[in-house]
Amino acid sequence: MNRIAFTNVNIFDGTGADPYIGEILVEDNRITKVAKNGESVNTGGAHTIDGRGRFIMPGMTEAHTHFSWNDQPSLSAIQFMPPEEHILWCVRVAKRYLEMGFTSALGAAAAKARLDVVLRNAINAGEFPGPRYLAGSQEITTLGGLGDNTLPHLPFRELNFGEVVSGPEEVRRAARMFIKYGVDHLKINLSGEYIAGIPAEASPFSEEEIAMLASEAKRAGNRVAAHARSSESVKQCVRHGLELVFHASFADEEALDMLEANKDKHFVAPGIGWLVSTLYHAEKWGISQEVATKMGYARELEVASETLTKMHKRGIRILPGGDYGFAWMPHGTNARDLEYFVKYIGMTPKEALLSATQLGGELMMQPESIGKLAEGYYADIVLVDGNPLEDLKVLQDPTKISLVMKDGELIKSCYDMKAPEGAIHVTGGNEPMRDEGVKKAMHAEAH
C-alpha cells in the first residue's frame, strides 16, 4: 500500500470550516485520516511531506472547460486546427490544468465532435495526465446561430464550429449522434454572443427543439449544458430541465425566481472571466475597450455583476470557469474567476474557494468523494505557497502551486518527501510550470 502523510499543513478542507493546522494521511488513492486539534496521523511506513504551515486544499473543479479552444483570437481560428494536431493540443492543455490545481473539469463543448470523448478516455486509461473529466458534445446550434460559421459559397459542414440543426428531428439526429460517440452531456447554444455578431439577448431555438433535446438526453441518461446569456434562454433551461446553465448574464427576476425554486437541480457557470478579459485585455487582438463596449460587453458585465450578485444571495450554485482558451485569456489562467467572484459578485474569498472545491464535487456528480479533504474522499490535493483566503491571486501563479496530487498520485511537487527509511527527493513534475501563455497573461494582469 502506498502511504503519504502531509504534516504541519494549514488545512482548508472544503466543508466550510475555517482553516486549521493539522495532518493528512493518504493511502493509495484515498484520504484515510485528517487530524486536527493537535492530533497526529500514523506516519509509520509513510512517505512524509512537511508542509511547514503552508495552505492545503482540495483540488479545484473548472465548470466550463474548452480544452480544444487553442488560445486563438476567434472561433474560426480555433476550428481550423487539423484534428491530428488538435487532439495533441488537448492532451497538453489537460496537463496544464492539472498542474494549476484543477483536478476535475467539465467539458463545455468540443471544437470537433469527438475531441472531448477521446481525451476523457485517454485520461481515464492513464495514457496522459489530466483532470477527472466529463466530456461534452460539439455545440448544437441553429441556422444563423452562435457556432454556425458556414458561408454561402463554402457550405462545408466540416469547417463549421457547431453542429447546425433546424427543427426537432434534426435536433434528435444530432443528439443521438453525440450520444453514440459517448459524451457525458450535450451542449446547446440557446442564446447569442456579441463577438460572433449575434445579440447576447437573442434566443433562437424553439420550445419544440429544446424539448426534443431534453427528451433524447433523458432517455440516454445524459445531462444538458446550455450557452444561455439571455433571460429567456435561462427560463428555457429551467422549463426543460437543462441542468448546466452557462453565463445567465441577463436573467431577470422571473428567471432568478425559477432558478431559485430549482436550485438543487441547476448549476451556473457564468464565465465572468470572459466578460472581464474581452473588455479589458483583448486590445492586442483588435478588441480595444472602446470596441468591446460598442459590442455590448461593458453593459453585459455591469448587468451580469448585478444579476450574479442576486443569484449568489439566493443560494443558487455558481461555479468558476468559462471560455478560457482564447488569445486574451489563455488556458491556465482560469483561477482569475475566483478573484472576479469576489470583485464582481460579492463572494467572500472562502465562498469563492468553496465554489471551486465543494461545489465542484456536486457538479461532477461525486459529492461524497470529490471536493473535500475528508476521510474516504479521493486524494485530490493542492498545496499552495501562500494563503488564497488572504490573496486569491496566488492561485493564478504557477510557481505558487507547490504540489498537486490527483487520485493519490503526485503530479507536481516542489517538496522533499521523506521516506520511512530516509530522505529522498520527489522526481518528475517537480519544476514549476513555465507555460509562456500563462506567464504573458500574468504579466498583462499585473500591468
From TrEMBL:
One of its GO terms (molecular function) is hydrolase activity, acting on carbon-nitrogen (but not peptide) bonds. Gene3D superfamilies: Metal-dependent hydrolases, Urease, subunit C, domain 1. CDD domains: Met_dep_hydrolase_A. InterPro entries: Amidohydro-rel, Metal-dep_hydrolase_composite, Metal_Hydrolase, Metallo-dep_Hydrolase, OTAase-like. It comes from the Bacteria. Pfam families: Amidohydro_1. It comes from Caballeronia arvi. This is Amidohydrolase. Residues 55-410 form the Amidohydrolase-related domain.
